[in-house]
Every structure is written in C-alpha cells, then in structure tokens.
Amino acid sequence: MSFLRNKWILIALLTLCWAIATSFLAGYYYLQYNDLSAKVRGVIISASLGIDYGNGSGIIWHNETRMNAGSTLLNLTKLVAHVNYTKSLSGASIDAIDGVSNSYPSWWMWWSSSTNGWVLGSVACDRYVVGENETLLWYFQDITTYPPTPPP
Amino acid sequence: MAESLNKGWMDNPTRRTPLNTFKIAIIATLCALSIGTNYALIGVSNIKFMDFIVFFGGFCFGSTVGASIGVLSWLIYGLINPLGFVPQVWVATMFAESIYGLVGGVIGTKLRSSSFQGQRLRASVFFATVGFLPTVLYDLVTNIVYAFSFNVPLVVAVFTGAPMTVLHEVANAAIFGVCTVPLISVLGRNIMRQRICPS
C-alpha cells in the first residue's frame, strides 16, 4: 500500500475518472443538441431587433422579424441591415451596421431585453441563438466605461 | 487427496491447483449472492452489487475464481433476465463481467495482505477509482456489442446511453469506495485468521 502515500497517484486516478465521465456526458449532450437542431430545422420563429445608431434619432425597430429556428443574432441582423463583420476564433465581431463603423470611443454592443431590463450580450453575435419572441438591440455607444451604460 | 489439495490451496490461494470443493463452494456462493442482489435491485437501473461481489471474489480468491463468478453470474442472470434476452449482448456481458474478477485478482495479489491502518480514506479513494475504471471498459464493450447487434452507429450507441453509463460508473465507484476497505479489514481480522482466505 506504499503507493497510496503518494497523493498525486490518487489525484491522477480521480482526474482520469472525472475526465472520462465528463467526456461521456459531453458526447451525450452533443448528440442531443444535434438531434434537437435537426428536429427544429425549418421551423419559423420571430423576434424583434432594434438598432440605435447613436445619432440621436432613437431606436429603429424591426418587429416580429421572421427567421429559421436556430438562427443567430448575426443572421437576424443581416436580415434587416447591411452588416460588416470580422470572424475570429472567439466569434464574429461587428465592424459596421448600415455604414456606421466602430470608432473609439463608440462601438457596436448588443443587448437583450429581460424582465430585469437590458442585459449586455456576453458572447459574439454569431454564437447567440435567437429565441422565439425575443427582443434584441444593437446599440452604438460609448465604451470608455465598463460595463457600458444600458440603452434608455 | 481432496483434503491435501484443499489445504494446499488454502496455504497459497494463488498457487495453480485444480478446482477443488472449496473453490467451487466459494464460486457458487458468490454467484448466488450476486445474482440474488441483481434480482433484488431489478427496479434500480445500473446500481448493482454484482460487480463488487465479482471483484471481491477475485480480490480474495484469485483472478480465476473472480472471473468464473463473473461469467457464471451473467450466464444465469442473463438467461433469466426480466429485462429481456439478446444472445450477443448476453455473451458480451458474461465475458465483460469477468473483467471485475480479473482486476480483483491482480489487485488482490498485491494488496490482499495489506493493512489499511492510517490510510483508510486514501485506500477507499483508490478502490473507488478501481470500481470506476473497469466499469468504463465493461460499458464500452457492452455498448459496442449492442451497436453491432442492432445496427446502431457506434458513436450513437456509446454516447446516447452516457447518462446511464456515468451512473453505473459513479455507483460502482461509491460501492467499491465504501465497501472494499471495511470488508477486507473484517476478513483480515476474522476470516483470514481462520485461513479461509489466507493472507
């Protein structure tokens, strides 16, 4: 039993067990996700997208825009506006919407509406899958302070 | 003759000797125990004592006895299984179950005479991982055979049942982790001293 005195052997064994269990579960959820997305493909949902160009004209709303279930915020934005964006490992970042380009200190940020008010988007717009009847907003805003000020 | 064979094996359980009355009795008793507990827990999916009993048989009495308990338990339990009978899966589980007996035998050879004094917790953690890892192999083998038997894609067969697989592995880890050290300690104190399970 002398090998038990080396705690790293036990830690290695436990880590191995944990890695195996989580890998199995990751594979399971991946299959479930693929199955579910295949089932909802072709289903049409609608969502509302607002765009605030930051020029004082207020928010321009595109209400009840229809799209395929599983569409991302980038897909939705491309349906209602002309978008320039750059893809990277962390996802797509918006360069300009309808010709209004990022220029420090103003930047395009996206927000989603919740019961507690506007919530700042936490992932790239091509990683966020839009839900049925969801309300989202592109806000061209000052980002010198963090977190940025929520839309009015 | 039988007595001398019996005595010889008791003195050294790992020595290669023909099957004797004692070994047969141990195999039959542990088989009955594992089958009985499996039927008792038929309503609880993937939480069973059979794997532990097979491992324990291997640990105390050697790989051959352990593997025999595994094969024979599934031979009977698989034939009269309320959940159904599929010949290919039955054969696969029969031989996969022997993994626990083989692992028990290998570990038993090294640790049968060990004292866990002062490191019971570490020993329990070790035996929990010993319960977990052969279960991964067992589940993989049975899932692969299931995939080929029912023409299911291999990846789908392996990962669709993942929650049940993980439940099986975690349950075995818990059973092995909680039960092995106390059981071996009790045997060491009481039974091994009487040379039924020699150290």
Q: What is this structure's SSE topology?
A:
The complex is a heterodimer of chains A (152) and B (199).
Chain A: H1 7-40, E1 44-52, E2 59-68, H2 73-80, E3 83-88, E4 91-97, E5 100-101, E6 106-114, E7 117-120, E8 135-142
Parallel strand pairs in A: 1-8
Antiparallel strand pairs in A: 1-2, 3-4, 4-5, 6-7, 6-8
Chain B: H1 2-11, H2 21-40, H3 50-61, H4 63-79, H5 87-111, H6 120-150, H7 154-160, H8 162-191
Helix pairs in contact in B: 2-3, 2-4, 3-4, 3-5, 3-8, 4-5, 5-6, 6-7, 6-8
Descriptive report:
The complex is a heterodimer of chains A (152) and B (199). With 152 residues, chain A is of the alpha+beta class. Chain A has 2 domains: 2-40; 44-142, Ferric Hydroxamate Uptake Protein, Chain A, domain 1. Chain A has helices at 7-40, 73-80; strands spanning 44-52, 59-68, 83-88, 91-97, 100-101, 106-114, 117-120, 135-142. In chain A, the strands form 2 sheets. Chain A has a 5-stranded mixed β-sheet with strand order 2-1-8-6-7, covered by helices on one side. A 3-stranded antiparallel β-sheet of chain A has the order 3-4-5, covered by helices on one side. Chain B contains 8 helices and no strands. Mean pLDDT of chain B is 84; it is low at 1-11. In chain B, α3 packs across α5 and α5 runs antiparallel to α6. Chain B has a single domain (2-194), classed as Arp2/3 complex 21 kDa subunit ARPC3.
What's the CATH C level of chain B? Mainly Alpha
List segments of chain B where confidence is low: pLDDT < 50 over at least 5 consecutive residues.
1-11
Spell out the helices and strands of chain B N to C. Answer: HHHHHHHH
The count of DSSP E runs of length 2 or more, i.e. the number of strands of chain B, is 0
What's the CATH topology name of chain B? Arp2/3 complex 21 kDa subunit ARPC3
Rg of chain B: 17 Å
pLDDT < 50 runs, ≥5 residues of chain A: none
Q: In the CATH scheme, what's the topology name of the largest domain in chain A?
A: Ferric Hydroxamate Uptake Protein, Chain A, domain 1
The number of domains of chain B: 1
- Overall shape of chain B: it is globular
Major sheet: arrangement of strands of chain A: 2-1-8-6-7
Helix percent band of chain B: over 70%
Q: How much of the sequence of chain B is in beta strands?
A: under 5%
Q: What is the C-level CATH assignment of the largest domain in chain A?
A: Mainly Beta
Biggest sheet statistics of chain A: 5 strands, mixed
> Beta-strand level of the residues of chain A, as a percent range?
35-45%
Determine the fraction of residues in helical runs of chain A and give it as a percent range: 25-40%
Q: From the alpha-carbon coordinates, what is the Rg of chain A to the nearest angstrom?
A: 21 Å
**Average pLDDT figure of chain B:** 84
